[in-house]
Amino acid sequence: MNFKRTVQAASLLFFLALLLLAAFPLKTWFPTDFFLRLDPLVFTGTLISSREWVSALAPGLIIILLTLVLGRFFCAYICPMGITLDISDRVFRPRYNNSFLSPEKSHGLRRVKFWILFFILGTAIVGVSTVFLGSPLSLITRFYGLVIYPLAVHILDLGLDSLFFFYSALGLERLAYIEFQTPRFATQVFVLLFFAAVFSLVLLSPRFWCRYLCPSGAVLALFSVRPLLRRTVSSSCTECGLCQSKCPMQAIEPDPARTRHQECIVCEECVRICPEKAITFAPGFRQADRPAPYWPQRRRVLASVLGGMGTALLLQTGVREVRSDTAPGNLASKFLIRPPGALLEEDFLGRCIRCGQCMKACPTNPLQPVWFESGILGLFSPKILPRRGPCEPLCNICGQVCPTGAIRSLPVLEKTWARMGTAHVLREKCLAWAWDRKCLVCFEVCPYAALELRRVPDISIPVPFVLLDKCAGCGACEFHCPVQAESAVVVEPMNSLRLNKGSYIEEGRAQGMSLEADPDREREPPEDILTEEDSPEALPPGFNY
Length: 545
Description:
Elements: H1 3-21, H2 34-38, H3 40-50, H4 58-70, H5 73-77, H6 80-92, H7 103-109, H8 112-125, H9 136-162, H10 164-169, H11 188-200, H12 208-213, H13 215-222, E1 229-233, H14 242-246, H15 269-273, E2 279-283, H16 298-316, H17 345-351, H18 357-361, E3 367-369, E4 382-384, H19 397-401, H20 412-416, E5 422-425, H21 431-435, H22 441-445, E6 451-454, E7 463-466, H23 476-480, E8 489-492, H24 504-510
Antiparallel strand pairs: 1-2, 3-4, 5-8, 6-7
Helix pairs in contact: 3-4, 3-8, 8-13, 8-16, 9-11
C-alpha cells in the first residue's frame, strides 16, 4: 500500500472511530467533532454568519495556512468526503475513459465551485448559514452518521437473530440476549439519493465533486496559487501523456511540465505512474512551471455574493422564518422543539451546519432533522421528537459534540435547567380524563416530578395535571404514554428557555422555575387521594403505584 492510501485509510478510520465515539456517555478526551473543525468552509462561513470568533474552529484556519505551504493536501489525504469519493470512483469509474468532459468544458466547470463559495459567503454576510449546502465534512458526517451507521446497526441486529442456531450450537446462547436498538432518522432517503447522485458523477469525470462543486476546495484553491511544495518535471520527461490521463483533478496542462497548482491535490499519482521517474514534489519557486492562476472575476464574485445575500434576505421574509424568539407574529410550529442549550433561533440557524453529529450521538434518538417546520432556512437543523424518545436529563452529549457552538456545551446541572418546552395533557385522549381508566404512567416516569395527580368532580380516579414550574419539556411523559397514535401528553416549545450566554439556573429561578431532575426517583401518589379502589391490587397488570 502506497503512502497516500495508507494516510487515507488512517484518516477515514479515525473519522469513523470518532463518529462512533460520539455517544453518551462520552468516553474520550479527544474532540469527536475534530474533522468538522478542520473544514475551511465551516471556519469561514461560521465566522462570518455568527459575527463571532469561534475558537473551536481554529483548526480550519490552520488548514488554510498549511495550504499556502503544502497546496491542497487536505483534499487528498484528510478529507473523508474526498477519500470516500476515491473509493466510490474505484468501484464505479469507467476504466476506458478518464473524463467525458473536454478540456474546454472542464475549465469552465471549475469556476462553479467558486460561485457556490461566494454564494454561501453572501448568505453568511446577512447572518444566514448555508454552509450545510456545500461543506464536505458536514455532508459526509450526515451520510455516515444518519444513513450508514443506523443501517450497520440494523444489519448487526438482524445478523445476531439469523445466526441464533449457529452460535447456540457452540454453546453461546447468551448472545441471544444481546439486542441493538436501531436508531431511526428522517431525511435518510434524501441523503442517500444525494450521495448516489454525487457518486454517479464519476461517469463524467473522477472526483467530479472535488473538481467542480466543492466550496471548501474553492477556499483552498484560492490559497494554493503558489504553494511552496509543488510538482516539478525534469528534462527526462518524454511527454508520453500518461500523467495527464491519470491525474484525478486534471491539473496537468497539455505541456506536462506545467501544473495548475490551484487544482493539484498533491496526491502524487503522476509520480507513481511516470515511466521515466521525471516527476517529483519538492519546494520550488519557479514561475515557468505553472500557468496563470485563475482568479474569479470581480463581477462574477460580486454577482455570486449579491445572489447569496439577496436569496437569504428573500428567504428571511418567508412566513415561517423565525427571526426573533420573542417577537409577536411568529408562526413557529408546535412541533419545533430545539435541543437543550440551543442558542436563540436566529443565532442557532446562523451557526448550525446540519452535520447531524448531535442526532447520531443522542442516546435515546429523539433528535431528528427538520424539513420545513422552521422555513427553508431551517432545513436539516435538529429538533426533538419526544414521541421517538425522551431527552435524558443526565445527558449533555449534544452540546459536547456540536462543533460550532450552535448547541451550548453545558454542565449536566445547567443542562437540566435548559427548558425545551412544556407538556400538557390532552384530556380528550387521556385514559384517566376521558375514559375513567386507571393509568399513572406519565406520573411515574417524569424525572422532574412535574406531573401531579388530583381528584376532580365527576371522575372516580385521580387524573394528571402538569406543574408548569417543574416541567422541562424532556418528553418522557409523551414517549411512555400508552395511548396509541398521538400521545395523550404532548410537549410543545411553549416557555422554552434559550440563552446565548449566562446561567440557565439563574435565569430559570428568576422566572420562577424549579427544575430538579432525579431519573431514579420512585414516585407514589399522595395518600390523601387514594381510595380502596385505587390500591395497587386494583390496577391492571403492568401498572402500579
